[in-house]
Amino acid sequence: MAYDNTTFLVDTGIYHPRFREVLTEDEKEQELRYKPVISRQRFVVSRTILRHILLVMLSEENIADIVLIRNEHGRILVKDHPSVYISLSYSGTCVAITVGKRKLGSDIELVRPLSDKKITSSPIFNNYPCCHDKERIRRVIHTWTLVESYAKLYDKNPYPLLNASTLFTNANFVSYCINQRMIFSLASDQKKFTDSLVWLDTSGIRKHPYSRTISRASASTGFSRL
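Given the sequence above, the corresponding C-alpha cells read:
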C-alpha cells in the first residue's frame, strides 16, 4: 500500500513441476511452444509467482480467482482489476515481476558484453564514453535496460528507439545495480513514483504451492541505486 509499484526478484531455481497446476489450459499450451527448458521454467515460475503475489495484494481467497489476460499489445492484465499494472522481465535465471498502480515498463539484464550490433552501434551509447571496458559494458547494459523499459511502457519495439541520439525525456526512470551482476530499470510516465525492490522468499512454495508465502518477502542488501 505504501508504494506505487513493487518488484519481486525470483530465481528459476525454485521451479517445481507442481507450479504448472495453477496455469490455465491456454498457458500450458503456450508453455509448450517454448523450446529451451529455461524459457519454459521462466514462463511457469513467472505466472505462478505472479498469481501468488496478486492473491495477497488483491486479498483474494482462491488462486483460481486470479485471471490473467493479454491486451492487443501483449501486455498482461488482471481480469476485473483494471487499476493493476504488470511488467515481467527475464535475464539468465532471474525473473523480475513488477506490480504497479499505474502503467509502467521494466527490464532486467545480466551485466555482460552484448554482441547485438543493432544495440552497440546505437548513437545513444556515444554519449557514455568510458575509459575501461568493464565500465563501458555496465553503462551499455544500463542504457539498454532504460530503452527496454521505455519500450514496454509505451508498447513499442525497442530497436527503432535506438536511432535516437539521446535518451527519452517523456518518462521517469529508476535503476538498480543488483549484487554487481545485474541491472534492473523501471520506467513510468513523467510523474515520479515510489518503488520497492525485494527478493521473494519462496522457500515454502515447494512444499506448499498454494500457501501465502508472499508475506515473507524481504529487502536485500545487494541493491544499489544508480
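The beta strands are 5-11, 68-70, 76-78, 85-91, 94-100, 105-110, 172-178, 182-188, 195-199, 223-225. Try to locate this feature in the C-alpha cell string yourself.
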